[in-house]
């Protein structure tokens, strides 16, 4: 596989980028007689990305009457008029394919003159389009001082990381790749869950695509994103293979990806099928354009042996297995005004195949009506998810729930309003062993936008939760929660400020009466007096009170963010800091934390070749923690010297 | 002497009775009752109070494991599962984050029970005695279970939900999001952290609903001033979690994020009826060597015509009107500025206009 990559890269590098004309200048027979000759000539195919255009006219147009339009863009002011016509050097890369140069003017008598010259472009002789771009940044970091000997901060480290993107296209066929090569070497171990030391490819995707009129196909290998339906799989970014095929009104998809995330390719490319950690599935669908309806059936099956995947944590452990099948119908009943979406699904799932229990099966279904009428949008959904419904590709998702959800939104010139209302219940199987619950969350969000410089709004949330039919020994539960949030800002070109305040009260109506209240104040202030300086300061105060005991805990936090260039394009000084104090009225908490990360850098770009961007920097990190309850205090200062080198190129 | 001996016997008997009594009363757990979600795992913080028998010098309390049991069958030893998390304390208090696995709930439920207990025994110093604490666990639907987190998923929301991204230096708008799946309802407290630096504190009541999505704020942005790796975490302080908090990384390139300045459109005024030869004017931008003015059809938002110019004004040529500008329709226009290397350095918003009937030549 590595050899194939090298061959592909070599081919791309060897593609001649210069201007090679497949056809000499020729009389434009198809053009009007006004044009004597043109390059590119009419219907000529040019091999170039920015081919120079030269046109010789039979008669010069009257002053101020020449208009030259290339693909719908007026380039008259960009052309260089000559005694016999004009020339033009394209400013931007012209995409491969058909182009049209339109010339118009008037003769001295005011008679209109017009001509049109169609031509085609190829970027290389081998491929209609061929591009490759790379962007790399390398860092050498040396530790000048460190107080904490945590065993992970290296004294010396070299890190190089970048992106490489390439694409070749010929007609309806396209092959592209994206990769993130990385090289890491340091005198301490790397953190787990990332790449390993040495040269590696952090992530990659190789993509082949065919875009025919009736047949469309796409194959992806690498870090792919799997999307099918809400009950089966959505937004699953994993290493594996994905195929999509479309023929006429039909569509077919197939995917097979690893259940846990994979980083780098040193351990595995992820192509091999793993019995214990693979999710495989596909779908078949077809469109009925006459009734604006799409129908899709999806099935997937999988096993997952991970107990901790990077970016996702769960407390379930062991091998989980399952499969899920879904049938979905979406229809534009009245285009944009009334769109329906129906899905029914059936799942089998075993949260631990090593225990004494077999897999359990259940169903889920939903019907959704949504649309937009003028400035109003709405979404009304009914959803039922069985007690044991679970997709192996959406573990920990919603289950044991039945309810109605409504979302409405209205946009007026000076106002906007959105409403969320829902009512749902748990214990959908009405089991007598458990209580039944009813939930009614409601929310309203209003914004006044009459003054663009002073946006403001208020939001209200009200939620009711209560149990019924409690089995013996279960006390009933009833909780009413309310939250009110207000916000206002003042926005100016060089500075802006905003204030947000929120108040919540949780009314516990059980015999315990454990009410809680909370307030949250946030002030934001940012200032950019000149392009080279910007600063933002955000103080925040949170007060949470246990209404039963009267104990209140205050948490005050301020963050600071500074970006500056004391000497433009030469010296950079940036800083991020936070200061936090937590204090409880019963003295159970009394803690201060201060953190500062900063960087002072000098750009050496003016002393280096144009394609290189070197920088030398001092980087510092300071943290201080003071716990007055435990009577402890800790300081930690780390200082690094960093040499940075960045380069990029493209063909 | 005899009296003293008798007194000593009485004292020893009293102390023995007291020790037995305190051992019998045993340790206590708070909360004493926990609602566990059916079909999910639930995590709760349990605080143990460990009373020392009077007169018995206690150096420490040690517990090597806890056990889930069906009530009423303790003696029979019907176990639902064990927790092998050791606890040791030299004070009278100790806490643990108890994870009630889905399998344990399932075992109890399938056996026909809607509640069970968790029992943890503590060895008292070197006395050989033990004391136990019991937590009653009731199986309930997820919405009324103890407020606990089931799963946290982090991703960068402006990069197709990826959890590793690469951005240019001083990139603005990089946002991290967290999908948090939970049981019950309550106050979610935590903070976003990048390289140990607090970016934002999160404190909000999350109602029953089992999932909430949080995102880092716009001010301050995630720091992108320092080339290299940066680690983003969402640290949850309430409810306490029994699993490792996830993290994700972003790589800041040495390449500088281009600064795109706002470009002001001067004429015509927004929404005006104008003749076809009316000039379009915009402010001059330092370092801009080229401008691209684009005209967009208001109804389908597609670009219908554009022009490249080095000036700060433009007039639509009469000869292109018929092909590109049907009269009586609404159009939008905007301008971008490019530097000598053809990088965009300025951009405007959109303004609208209507073209009047062209005057006959």
Description of the molecule:
The complex is a heterodimer of chains A (651) and B (361). Chain A is mostly beta strands and 651 residues long. Among the domains of chain A are: 18-123, Sandwich (Immunoglobulin-like), CATH 2.60.40; 212-399, no CATH class. Chain A has one helix and 38 strands. In chain A, the strands form four sheets. Chain A has a 26-stranded antiparallel β-barrel. In chain A, strands 1-3-10-9-5-6 form a six-stranded mixed beta sheet, with no helix packed on it. Chain A has a four-stranded antiparallel beta sheet with strand order 2-4-8-7, with no helix packed on it. Mean pLDDT of chain A is 87; it is low at 1-31 and 308-316. Chain B is mainly β and 361 residues long. In chain B, the strands form six sheets. In chain B, strands 2, 4, 5, 6, 7, 9 and 10 form a seven-stranded mixed beta sheet that branches. In chain B, strands 19, 21, 23, 24, 26, 27 and 28 form a seven-stranded mixed beta sheet that branches. Chain B is elongated and about 120 Å long. Chains A and B meet through strand 6, strand 11, strand 12, strand 21 and strand 28 of A and helix 2, strand 10, strand 11, strand 14 and strand 15 of B. Strand 21 of chain A pairs antiparallel with strand 11 of chain B.
Distance between the termini of chain B: 138 Å
Roughly how many Å apart are the termini of chain A?
23 Å
Helix content of chain A: under 10%
Estimate nothing, just give the exact number of structural domains of chain B: 3
Shape of chain A: globular
Q: Beta-strand level of the residues of chain B, as a percent range? A: over 45%
Main sheet specs of chain B: 7 strands, mixed
| Rg from Cα of chain B | 35 Å
Uncertain runs of chain A are 1-31, 308-316
- Mean pLDDT reading of chain B: 83
Here the CATH topology of the largest domain in chain B equals Immunoglobulin-like
- Helical/strand content category of chain A: mainly beta
CATH architecture of the largest domain in chain B: Sandwich
Tell me the radius of gyration of chain A: 32 Å
Assembly type of the shown chains? Answer: heterodimer
């Amino acid at each position: 596989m590595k050899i194939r990559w090298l061959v592909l890269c070599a081919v791309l590098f060897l593609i001649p980028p210069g201007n090679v004309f497949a056809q000499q200048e020729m009389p434009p027979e198809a053009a009007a007689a006004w044009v004597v000759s043109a390059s590119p000539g009419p219907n000529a195919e040019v091999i170039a990305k920015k081919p120079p255009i030269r046109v010789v006219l039979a008669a010069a147009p009257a002053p101020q009457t020449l208009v030259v339009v290339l693909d719908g863009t007026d380039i008259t002011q960009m052309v260089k008029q000559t005694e016999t016509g004009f020339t033009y050097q394209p400013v931007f890369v012209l995409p491969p394919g058909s182009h049209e140069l339109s010339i118009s003017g008037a003769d001295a008598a005011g008679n209109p003159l017009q001509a049109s010259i169609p031509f085609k472009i190829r970027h290389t002789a081998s491929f209609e389009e061929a591009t490759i771009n790379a962007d790399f940044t390398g860092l050498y970091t040396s530790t000048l001082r460190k107080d904490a000997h945590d065993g992970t901060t290296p004294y010396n480290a070299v890190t190089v990381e970048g992106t490489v993107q390439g694409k070749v296209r010929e007609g309806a066929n396209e092959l592209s790749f994206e990769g993130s090569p990385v090289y890491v070497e340091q005198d301490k171990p790397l953190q787990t869950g990332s790449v390993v030391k040495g040269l590696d490819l952090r992530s990659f995707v190789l993509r082949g695509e065919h875009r025919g009129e009736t047949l469309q196909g796409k194959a992806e290998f690498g870090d792919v994103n799997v999307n099918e339906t809400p009950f089966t799989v959505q937004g699953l970014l994993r290493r594996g293979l994905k195929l999509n095929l479309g023929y006429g009104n039909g569509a077919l998809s197939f995917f097979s990806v690893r259940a846990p995330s994979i980083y780098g390719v040193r351990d595995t490319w992820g192509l091999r099928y793993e019995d214990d950690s693979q999710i495989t599935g596909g779908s078949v669908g077809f469109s009925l354009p006459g009734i604006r309806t799409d129908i899709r059936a999806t099935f997937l099956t999988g096993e997952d042996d991970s107990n901790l995947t990077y970016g996702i944590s769960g407390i379930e452990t062991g091998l989980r297995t399952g499969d899920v099948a879904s049938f979905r119908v979406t229809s534009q009943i009245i285009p944009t005004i009334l769109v329906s979406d129906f899905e029914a699904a059936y799942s089998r799932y075993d949260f631990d195949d090593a225990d004494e229990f077999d897999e359990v099966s259940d169903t889920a279904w939903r019907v959704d009506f949504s649309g937009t009428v003028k400035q109003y949008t709405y979404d009304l959904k009914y959803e039922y998810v069985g007690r044991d419904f679970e997709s192996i590709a959406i573990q920990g998702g919603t289950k044991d729930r039945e309810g109605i959800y409504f979302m409405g939104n209205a946009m007026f010139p000076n106002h906007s309003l959105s409403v969320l209302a829902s009512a749902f219940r748990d214990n959908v199987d009405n089991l007598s062993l458990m209580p039944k619950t009813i939930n009614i969350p409601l929310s309203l969000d209003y914004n006044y936008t009459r003054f663009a410089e002073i946006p403001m709004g208020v939001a209200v949330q009200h939620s009711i939760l209560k149990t019924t039919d409690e089995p013996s020994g279960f006390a009933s539960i009833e909780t009413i929660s309310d939250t009110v949030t207000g916000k206002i800002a003042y926005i100016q070109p060089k500075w802006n400020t905003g204030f947000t305040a929120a108040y919540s009260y949780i009314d516990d109506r059980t015999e315990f009466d454990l009410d809680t209240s909370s307030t949250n104040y946030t002030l934001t202030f940012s200032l950019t007096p000149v392009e080279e300086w910007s600063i933002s300061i955000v103080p925040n105060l949170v007060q949470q009170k246990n209404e039963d005991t009267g104990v209140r805990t205050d948490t005050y936090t301020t963050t600071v963010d500074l970006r500056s260039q004391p000497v433009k394009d030469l010296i950079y000084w940036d800083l991020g800091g936070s200061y936090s104090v937590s204090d409880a009225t019963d003295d159970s908490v009394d803690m201060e934390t201060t953190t500062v990360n900063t960087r002072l850098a000098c750009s050496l770009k003016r002393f280096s070749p144009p394609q290189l961007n070197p920088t030398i920097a001092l980087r510092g990190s300071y943290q201080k923690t003071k716990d007055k309850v435990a009577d402890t205090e800790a300081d930690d200062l780390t200082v690094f010297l960093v040499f940075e080198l960045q380069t990029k190129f493209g063909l | 002497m005899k009296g003293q001996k008798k007194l000593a016997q009485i004292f020893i008997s009293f102390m023995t009775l007291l020790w037995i009594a305190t051992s019998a009363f045993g340790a206590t757990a708070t909360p004493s009752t926990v609602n566990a979600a059916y079909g999910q795992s639930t995590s709760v913080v349990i605080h143990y109070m460990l009373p020392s028998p009077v007169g018995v010098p206690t150096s420490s309390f040690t517990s090597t494991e806890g056990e889930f049991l069906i009530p009423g069958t303790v003696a029979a030893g019907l176990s639902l599962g064990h927790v092998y998390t050791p606890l040791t304390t030299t004070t009278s208090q100790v806490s643990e984050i108890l994870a009630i696995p889905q399998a344990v709930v399932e075992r109890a439920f399938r056996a026909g029970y809607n509640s069970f207990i968790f029992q943890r025994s503590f060895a008292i110093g070197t006395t050989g005695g033990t004391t136990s604490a019991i937590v009653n666990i009731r199986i309930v639907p997820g919405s009324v279970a103890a407020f606990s987190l089931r799963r946290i998923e982090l991703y960068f929301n402006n990069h197709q939900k990826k959890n590793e991204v690469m951005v240019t230096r001083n990139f603005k708008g990089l946002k991290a999001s967290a999908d948090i799946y939970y049981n019950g309802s309550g106050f979610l407290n935590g903070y976003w952290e990048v390289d140990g630096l607090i970016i934002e504190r999160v404190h909000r009541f999350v109602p029953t609903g089992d999932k909430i999505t949080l995102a880092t704020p716009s001010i301050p942005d995630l720091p992108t001033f320092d080339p290299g790796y940066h680690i983003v975490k969402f640290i949850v302080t309430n409810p306490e979690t029994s699993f490792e908090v996830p993290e994700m990384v972003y790589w800041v390139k040495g390449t500088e994020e281009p600064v795109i300045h706002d470009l002001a459109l001067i004429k015509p005024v927004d929404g005006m009826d104008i003749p076809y030869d009316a000039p379009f004017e915009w402010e001059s931008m330092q370092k801009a060597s080229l401008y691209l003015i684009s005209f967009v059809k208001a109804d389908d938002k597609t670009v219908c015509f554009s022009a490249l110019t080095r000036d700060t004004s433009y007039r639509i040529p009469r000869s292109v009107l018929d092909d590109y500008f049907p009269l009586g329709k609404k159009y939008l226009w905007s301008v971008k500025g490019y530097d000598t290397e053809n990088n965009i350095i300025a951009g405007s918003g959109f303004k609208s206009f209507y073209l009047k009937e062209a005057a006959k030549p």
